[in-house]
Predict the 3D structure of the following.
Amino acid sequence: MQESSGNQTMLKICGFIVDKRNLFFLIFGILVIFSAVSRNWVAVENDMAYYLPSSTETRQGLDLMEEEFVTYGSISVMIANVSYEQGKAIKEDIEEMEGVFSVSYDDTKSYYNNGSAKLAITFDYSEDDDRCLEAQEQIKTYLEGYDYYLITSLGDIEAEMINDEMKVISAIVVVIVLSVLLLTTQAYAEIPVLLITFGLSAVLQMGTNFVFGTISFVSNSVTIVLQLALSIDYAIILLNRYKEEHASYEPREAIIIALSKAIPEIAGSSLTTIGGLIAMTFMQYKMGPDMGIVLIKAILLSLVGVFLLMPGVIMLFAPLMDKTKHKNFIPQIPFVGRFAYKTRYIIAPIFLVMIVAGYIISSRCNYVFGDSTIETPIQNDMQKAETLMTENFGSDNLVAMMVPTGDYEAEKKLIDELEARDEVDHCQGLANIEALNGYTLTDKLTPRQFSELIDLDYEVSKLVYAAYAINDEDYAKAINGIESYSVPLIDMFMFVKQEVDEGYVTLEADLKKTLDDAYEQMNFGKKQLKGDNYSRILVYLTLPEEDQSTYDFLDEMHKIAEKYYPDGKVLLCGNCVSQYDLKNTFARDNKVVNIMSILVVLVVLLFTFKSAGMPVLLIVVIQGSIWINFSCSTLLGHNIFFLSYLIVSSIQMGANIDYAIVIASRYSELREHMTRPAAIIDTMNMSFPTIVTSGSMLAMAGITIGKLTSNAAIFNIGQALGRGTIISIAITMFVLPQILLVGDAIIARTAFVMNMPIRTKEASGFLRVDGVVRGRINGVVTGTMHAFVKGDISAYVEAGDVTAVEEDEIADMTPLAEGKSESSVIDEAEDDIEDYLEDEEGADHEE
């Protein structure tokens, strides 16, 4: 018999992959070496606000601050077990260090409390200048003899700590994977085959992230672990196919046939996972698309590794796999199938009630948008320092307000009104910073007041003011009324400094030093608080960072500012503003991710099962497990980081549904020639190894991540993913079978087929038969059969049995039953067989 042209083409392609394996080894070797180098080209973004949509206030505020202002590098240091005088001496020493602009420290409780001193250190350079890091290291070296705690945002300290944690997590996950594979494989040499395939795919994944330029710290840290957990199925499917074929063929032929069968099966399985990840790319909050795209690339590279590299690796290890076979440690579980059949009318309705309850409870999850309210299982050095500093000195909730520049009086009135509110501790802006002798930077001084302030000759002062008026094109004041002409102090200092530098004004040495010192301080403050178009006011709130009262006051701050700047745009920026924006973004993203993940997976399942009923049943099962998963957080009183919910729900829908597909596919296949009790028992026996292997890896990987990270987002992802996978496994093993049994009729009635011409195949000789067969076969049969035969059997049967069935108890299985259609005969026969097996309590099948 001739193979179909499509199958012949696939076999040729698979033969090429196997026979040219050395070529693929070379290609992968080159790519791995390249990836080992290129992985260092990847930039990692640690700021979650970076991924906010451009329409949000935080994103606009950050962009504006970058354009208008200079933000100098700064750190906070707490030194425990020192006296106030020791703290003062340390402050004076640090002030003398190169690169340090100022050190704030006094005898108030804000800086000295409980035997601990707090130093607020500001550097001479902007926060992205590497010289800040050098100055920071110099301070750390100086403090080595003290019990000190340092808080800094300079450099990539957060990314470095996360990377260190993920190295430990990755090592533990590798041990977990090895342990699972030892128990689930059937030969010890299978383990290196799987590890080589995944390991090289993981290296390629890390080495190709540079194509995105910059990726988030979440994508950079958890992708490898999730890639292993999500894609190990593909390698296991190919390996199992190979072992099935190797029972009849030599290694080369076995892997070629196995690969030709595994490619469509693996590709179909990957589509649901990719579908769930695609849903993340529709999020407004751009960290979702960032992680979704990185994980999709990881899945695709895993497929490349399985299809192109693994066949050659199997060929290398084939002799060793034959020699290292061991006992199969995964037991048969016929009791699960029997339990499913007996409880099908009990468990299914109970689960429906659980779904409704899960939906209601999970909708009351307390979503949070910052890490201040999430307690991670471990704390890094930075978090320990923040905790100690908060306990001793309290915490700041800082909001930067940007208003149109130029109107110092409006700015002063705005600051006064804000400081009068109970929600505000204090404000800092040009209009309330004291400069000299009680004057603020924006106070307007006459020539006489200015001359007295800096001990400048009055006549010289008037000349300077006249020059300023001319420069400002206020000619009337320059000619008449210069004595009453008033100019903001900071503007006059800037002008005088410019005139002195250009040689138009000459000052005595002492006066010039006073001017230079004052100019340095004022210019330092001006660069931080006054830009070309906007001024920045720092507002320190008494409210917590993440609370509805804080969000309400942010809206109130806008209303207050708009009274003084009715025609200008006012922007707020800060941690609480960012969390407010994230909260508003989440409302839309939550709906989009849920709808898109369900729709994409639904489309894949429709074409997989060619039934409208089956996809709906499977999605109900997995969506129910998602709701039950997050209901646990509500019942336990745990806060859920919003990003963790979006990511985990997408992954759970896209990946955990594979477990349901494994069971549903096997059941649908067996139902074509077996009764419902027999089909569900065999289904659970055959599906259990795949589910327990893949599911245990994903669950333990998630739990490990959740137990060993100090990052709130990653902790929540690991915790929810690990728990969700366990729930999904339990539901697919102990609830889905009952749903399939109860919904059997629905699945059948909603099935649809692609109308294809029916052709009867006739051939003779040594033949291979693949597919559902109905007709007559005369010859010697070698292979696995699940069928009812009307006729004679003379054959050696391994791992099974031939059972006689009485004709008066079982309906005639031939489609030519007199007076009946083929479908009605099969339906009646199946019903009779179910009754028969129930009467005999399934004894024959159990044997």
Summary: The longest helix spans residues 287-323.
